[in-house]
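Posting for a labmate who doesn't have an account.
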Amino acid sequence: MRLAALEAENARLREALAWAEANGTWVGPPGEGIDPSALVRLAPRISWTADAEGRITGLPESWVELTGMECEAALGDGWLRLVHPDDRASVSAAWARAISSTGSFEAEYRMRLTRGHYRWMHTRALPLRGPTGDILRWHGMTEDVHERRAAEDSLRVLNETLETRVAERTHELAAANARLQSEIAERGRAEEALRHAQKMEAVGQLTGGIAHDFNNLLSGILGSLSILQKRLELGQVDQAPRYINSAMASVNRAAALTHRLLAFSRRQPLEPRPVEAHALIVSLEELMRRTIGPSIQLEVRPAEGLWHTLCDPHQLENALLNLVINARDAMPSGGRLTLETENTRLEAGDTTAPRDLAPGAYVRIRVTDTGSGMPPDVIARAFEPFFTTKPLGQGTGLGLSMIYGFAKQSEGHVRIDSEVGRGTSVTLFLPRFVGEAPEEGAVAGAPVAARAEGETVLVVEDEPLLRELVLEILGELGYRTIEAADGPEGLKVVQSKKRIDLLVTDIGLPGLNGRQLADAARELRPGLKVLFMTGYAENAVFGTGYLDSGMQMITKPFDPDALATRVREMFEG
């Protein structure tokens, strides 16, 4: 009800203001009885008029009640005496600008009222124009906005206080963050120092293990050759095969140890090809059964529609046999060994996927036993070289590290899940092969003849003894040979007019490595066959790991018969 009454009173006031503007008087229309002092009662608001030059010409009686100044004293520019001295100049200037621009006037300033105290007032004035557009007079409204300004000032002070507190809090947070970053950096340095110490400890363990194993192997080789030399000097040749076989056995064990070390360091020479994992497991099944013995039940669970994977099949065989042997040793009283294959896709953000394995399609091979299991501290060190929980003399501690290196070099992963007393599960993730897979059941052709048929072979090797041995092996088979001691010398031969049917080159050559030599040779002699000899090959040498057509690789140390067969196979295509 009060709101409706106020709205009705305001409507009458607006009507009175319109009448005053039309008649130049502040007396209301006949019979209405509008009291201008109602403006003061409803709100501290004063309506006034001024001439075209901005001199006040009319004020209501409420002006006296509000300000204590007589209306006659306020006419003209007299009202400015009530404006606060600090605001008077700005108000006068604003009023002058409004008159000269014939626009509107609006200002807020402090004015002294009846009780002698200053309050904030807001004034707004608009010009009243005649038929020709000239300003006839000004009509204005002045109202008390002190409470609003006080509220705004309080809000401003509050905001300034809040901003100060926020700034102080921000400064405190920045200081705390700086301290935290310093602590994190210090912790990072401490962790880096710890990792370095652990790394040096692992290097010491690695070198110690290598020295121990190689000393044993070298002792076997040196002892066998020394005895053989004495027997030959005495003409006792009947025992020669025995000592030769002993030396060869030590050499083969040393070669196997080297390959395992290269596998751990992910720098072994791999020959990746499409592999059907289940077919490979089936081909090893009989060997696995003989290895684990009758007290362990072997179960093979193939996946339907298993994808081909891309890896070195020989290294995969070695990895599976190592896992089977580890499982057998973990079940001395018997148990169950399960080999499973499965297709799997790892999506980005999958929390169950290995952390350092890229999203994509993989073939998963899981080897699970019901043996003794491993505690967490053993799992954490399981892939370290020469770390083993087996008794002294049983195992080298390189089996799992070799599997880890093979999986990583194949762009896959290996994971161990184990619980003491409940068994162990080792899972290999190998990337899916996308492309045309080889026909199932394809069999290799018959062994090829190793004898030469008039071909010429260029041998490039910087190790003189090895180069001499390769030349002798090929020469005994009837091949014509050309030798070069390094890459640049080999390139000169390639650039000559000499016939070359096959390039046999070491990869790690000085000046120009084997791959660079092969590429340059193929530019000059398109289609030239190349056989790389290597005991160490980084991915940088072969790019993504593939050899071009007409290129093959043989791993050092190699048997003379293996070299002869590989060379003949290359000539036979």
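Reply:
Got it, the structure tokens are right above this. The mean pLDDT is 78.
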